[in-house]
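In the laboratory, one determines a bound structure by crystallizing the protein with its ligand and collecting diffraction data. In a computational setting the workflow is compressed into a single prediction: the sequence and the ligand go in, and a structural description comes out. We illustrate the idea with pyridoxal-5'-phosphate.
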Amino acid sequence: MGNMMEPGQTVYFEGQYMPVEEANVSIMTHSFNYGTGLFEGIRGYYSSDEDNVLIFRLPEHVDRMVRNFNVLCMDISETPEDLANICVELVRRSSFREGVYIRPICYKSELSLGPRLDGVESRFCCYVIKLGDYCDIESGLDVVVSSWRRLSDNAIPSRAKSIGSYINSSLASTEAKQAGFDEAIFLREDGTVAEGSAMNLFMVLDGQLVTTPPTADILVGITRNTVIELAQNELGLEVIERPIARTELYVCDEVFFCGTGAQVAPVRSVDRRLVGGGQPGPVSRQLQELYFRVVRGKIDKYRSWCTAVY
Ligand SMILES: Cc1ncc(COP(=O)(O)O)c(C=O)c1O
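The predicted complex, in structure-token form:
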């Protein structure tokens, strides 16, 4: 990503808006020591028609974070409405009129030792950066099955989007990039497909759109849910959630990733085997095109998914 904060930019920290330079945590902070925090990644898209930034599916991101409080025994003073308002307010205060990425974090803020979850104070903080495309969404990605396995739900639950669990993603992403690939695909301990390092996976096979189920050690993506809805409602496709075998990725017609960062990103090859001849396929293309119209508020039916900032 590489995009960093502007000097003096406003963030939310310890119940207040303040310049980023003043928002610092102690080295004794529980989440700094044990990775005990949850985060979200939310995009806002600039609409030139409306001269506004539209935040995509903000309530759904807040809802996912708040539901996951239960996994990490968290409780904070802000309400879900407060969290959504803080996200909007931070973009407003940034004055950005381009693509943005909002990073809300709920973390164990106590200066205490011991990796216990209950009874440890949590706090909420949030910042905004400018963000364009995160990976190549045009020509297709060259991806590799990782030698690292996806975390299992009974070890560190992927669904929680917890800070510590991203070591798993970092290992896979680093390995793939060091070997000259664009991205990694995680298999589960049972050898079936889970997802990418920070994105969900779909394949097109026999006219069906197939993706791995919420029980496949994935983060249940909001983009994934969006793609499922658009594929069913707008393209009339049958969407199947079922386990995917590694070699199905070699023989299927199309593979694509989706996620807030990745958006809708076609895959050109898996393990050096071209997928569908090596060109982004028609379903990936159509869904990508639809997605970009939806996030910019251009389709009335889905306008309620966009929250205008200004
Ligand atoms: C591991 C992982 N899977 C999937 C996704 C996609 O989730 P979403 O569409 O909610 O951004 C992400 C985050 O972007 C992720 O980190």
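The chain has a mean pLDDT of 96. Keep in mind that any predicted model is a hypothesis to be tested, not a measurement.
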